[in-house]
Design a protein that fits this description.
2 copies of one chain form a homodimer. The first copy, chain A, is mainly beta. The first copy, chain A, is 4% helix and 48% strand. Chains A, B: It holds the Pfam family Cupin_2.
Chain lengths: 120, 120
């Protein structure tokens, strides 16, 4: 059994669509994913889990109902469970996401941006 | 409640010792930690959990009993549960670690490099 080295930028270079996370690894029962972000996502929350965003490139804005944050390259944030949030980016952002397997990207909101995680 | 933006390099600048991970965030029941690595760690394994290493700076070698990998900046690997490994670095490496809270850094090996995770 050989342990893989996963290069985030190489993985991100393999697709171009936005808001469609690709799984690059599993950590126990969590998915490690990469995603391209552009424009506004939907307001949503995940009732049962926190969500980790680590930005690889660009500046990711996350709106909350009472404040907003901007997460840049080499920075991360944890969106706590149950907290409504809206990721968005005026210019393209690439990011690493970590959350339990099976979490739906649009959380409680659903809609056309809902994406089934694919393996890369 | 304000969501924090966590800058990995800023967090790493707050300490200088090696092999002593600092927790910078929690993701459900997982710890998100940063660590400075220099020299050879002990051979060890974690029977009950995988472990994620994401390198921030430097080149991290991880020896396994039958192969080795080198993980560079922007690259990650998942060391599977139960697999013996030895992290090491000839020049200083900084990295992000993610694993369940309470995991002991030296796993089944113990010894003087065992470190209790501190908050940063």
């Amino acid at each position: 059994m050989t342990v893989d080295v996963i290069d985030l930028r190489s993985k991100l270079a393999q697709f171009a669509d936005h808001w469609a996370p690709r799984r690059v690894a599993r950590l126990n029962d969590y998915d490690v994913k990469v995603v391209r972000i552009l424009g506004d996502f939907v307001w949503h929350s995940h009732e049962d889990t926190d969500e980790l965003f680590l930005v690889v490139s660009g500046d990711l804005t996350i709106d909350f109902r009472d404040h907003r944050i901007v997460v840049g390259p080499g920075q991360l944030c944890i969106v706590p469970r149950g907290v409504e949030h809206r990721p968005r980016a005026d210019a393209e952002v690439t990011a690493l996401l970590i959350e339990p397997s099976g979490v739906v990207n649009t959380g409680d909101a659903g809609g056309e941006l809902t994406s089934v995680t694919q393996d890369l």
